[in-house]
Amino acid sequence: SKEKKELKGLPARLEALEAEHETMGEKLAAPETYKRGPGHVADLTRAYDAHQTKIETTYARWEALEARKNG
């Protein structure tokens, strides 16, 4: 089924999202980021926060699909 296929792909998707999020966090922690100005930092921070939300939403979807599968 479509949901079964989606469920199977979620661990790899989450791994990729978390790796990307870690890279974004490293950029935010780098001193050179702050030399580019507050607008750049604000954009990166917004992107970082949105990415965190995407990860949380993906985990919630995974839990919902698992619950349905085991249901």
The helix-and-strand class reads: mainly alpha
The poorly predicted ranges are none
Mean pLDDT: 95
Radius of gyration: 16 Å
β-strand amount = under 5%
Q: What is the number of helices? A: 3
The helix content is over 70%
Categorize the overall geometry: elongated
The count of β-strands is 0
SSE pattern, N- to C-terminal? HHH
The N- and C-terminal alpha carbons lie at a distance of 15 Å
**How would you sum up the major sheet?**
none
Could you describe the 3D structure shown?
There is one protein chain. The chain has 71 residues and is mainly α. It contains 3 helices and no strands. Helix 1 runs antiparallel to helix 3. It is elongated and about 50 Å long.
Detail the topology: elements first, then pairings.
Blueprint: H1 2-29, H2 31-34, H3 38-70
Helix pairs in contact: 1-3
What is this structure, in a nutshell?
92% of the residues lie in helices and 0% in strands. By secondary structure, the protein is an all-alpha fold.
